[in-house]
């Protein structure tokens, strides 16, 4: 790991590491080696009003892009220059002092990317480098208790996390939670490789060192684990996740915890299925996590804006929540605990928002979102009766609401190619059963034609994909009913 500039940098440059000197060097030199050396220094410089983003960012971004002009397999020198310039650009975007000293318009116009390929190449370099820098500093803190090392570890992790999406985003940008990519190219990693990061997370939960931003960063990084960690650490990890979902915690922390659990969802099902494993941990997981998840999704205060991260319906949060519950509900023990914790009522609350889903930026309907499929599949899995007419939903969901939800589920399946995903096809027979029942109602009688083309397309697509005969046959039963007039 290189946390300082290359050896080729002269000591003289480091003696000029104040704001006026930095400004002067950016204005007078286009030499990539000089730009790279100044870039290594920039995060240590006290920013002043005399140091302008408009002066600093263009040469940094130009040098950064130059590193990738020869392709995405970088030489050692190009890699060092990319790390120096990219680290400096992220620092400028993240540092609160810099943001306060520069207008928002000035901030936004200097951070752009040429392509997703460029971001992907940068991400593959910067994320593992930042995590390694974080681990080195945190290990030093553990042995020395020097707070400087603690701060360096926290900063290194933050600068790693902000590489999770294209662009130079601020750490609190919700895009990082819902769209961030935090895995890296190393197929040989095992859960124990993440133990140090779980220790980091737990450390910043302790009262004396408590830092919710550092915890959220760690949870996002730990989402790459796609599980609950090694047997030695998973108790602490689960406890901290549940702590992070409490109603009085900041939304960024609660949502980062949701992201971590979402990425671990397949292992959660495996643990519940493994009745021969650690029974105490399994019991804690099944008992405590459903209640914590419900708390995490609930409204904690009156909302002033539909864009608020804690709004009653947050499309990003609900996408992860519904897909998580959808997966868990296919396992009987999870299903029982989710129902006991109150997740059916939570899904009913979301129903009106899902069937009337609109793009918050345009106000236009967005029928191609996947939310309806996950919500329909989840409600059907949580219904032990197998029929909405005799189920616990009878006094909670009207025939019209069911019909709109089921139409949305079929639409979501087609427009998002969900028929190509085996896990999602597992829920299709239930959706077929409910659709056939719904087609018998007065509500559907005058609207069934709106479903014909969608079901026809899905039926043909499933045949092209050579789906299981039982799935194709189930969809054909809906197709035949619709072709005969829906009654």
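^ structure tokens above, recovered residues below v
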């Amino acid at each position: 790991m290189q946390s300082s500039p290359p050896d080729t940098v002269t000591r003289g440059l480091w003696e000029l590491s104040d704001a006026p000197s930095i400004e002067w060097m950016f204005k007078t030199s286009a030499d990539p080696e000089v730009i790279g050396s100044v870039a290594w220094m920039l995060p240590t410089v006290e920013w002043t009003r005399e140091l302008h983003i408009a002066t600093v960012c263009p040469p940094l971004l130009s040098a950064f892009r130059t590193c990738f002009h020869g392709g995405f397999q970088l030489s050692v020198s190009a890699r060092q220059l990319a790390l120096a310039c990219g680290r400096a650009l992220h620092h400028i975007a993240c540092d609160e002092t810099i943001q306060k000293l520069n207008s928002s318009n000035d901030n936004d116009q200097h951070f752009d990317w040429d392509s997703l390929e460029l971001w992907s190449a940068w991400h593959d370099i910067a994320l593992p480098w930042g995590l390694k820098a974080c681990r080195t500093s945190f290990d030093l803190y553990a042995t020395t208790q020097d707070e400087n090392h603690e701060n360096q570890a926290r900063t290194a992790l933050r600068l790693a996390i902000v590489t999770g999406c294209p662009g130079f985003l601020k750490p609190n940008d919700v895009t990082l939670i819902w769209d961030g990519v935090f895995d890296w190219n190393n197929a040989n990693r095992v859960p124990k490789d993440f133990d140090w990061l779980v220790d980091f997370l737990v450390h910043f939960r302790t009262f004396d060192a408590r830092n919710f931003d550092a915890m959220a960063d760690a949870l996002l990084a730990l989402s790459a684990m796609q599980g609950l960690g090694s047997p030695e650490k998973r108790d602490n990890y689960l406890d901290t996740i549940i702590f992070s979902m409490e109603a009085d915690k900041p939304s960024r922390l609660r949502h980062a915890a949701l992201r971590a659990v979402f990425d671990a969802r397949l292992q959660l099902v495996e643990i519940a299925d493994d009745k021969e494993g650690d029974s105490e941990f399994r019991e804690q997981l099944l008992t405590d996590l459903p209640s914590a998840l419900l708390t995490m999704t609930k409204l904690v205060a009156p909302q002033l804006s539909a864009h608020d991260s804690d709004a009653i319906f947050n499309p990003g949060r609900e996408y992860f929540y519904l897909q998580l519950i959808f997966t868990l509900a296919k396992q009987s023990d999870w299903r029982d605990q989710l129902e006991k914790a109150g997740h059916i009522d939570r899904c009913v609350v979301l129903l009106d928002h899902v069937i009337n889903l609109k793009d918050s930026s345009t106000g236009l309907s967005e029928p191609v979102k996947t939310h309806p499929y996950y919500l329909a599949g989840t409600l059907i899995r949580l219904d032990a009766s197998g029929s909405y007419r005799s189920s616990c939903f009878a006094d909670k969901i009207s025939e019209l609401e069911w019909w709109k939800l089921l139409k949305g589920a079929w639409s979501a399946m087609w427009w998002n190619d969900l028929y190509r995903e085996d896990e999602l096809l597992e829920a299709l027979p239930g959706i077929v059963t409910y659709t056939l029942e719904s087609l018998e109602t007065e509500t559907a009688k005058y609207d069934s034609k709106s479903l014909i083309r969608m079901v026809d397309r899905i039926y043909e697509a499933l045949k092209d994909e050579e789906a299981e005969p039982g799935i194709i046959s189930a969809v054909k039963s809906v197709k035949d009913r619709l072709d005969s007039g829906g009654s």
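The two ends are 69 Å apart (CA to CA).
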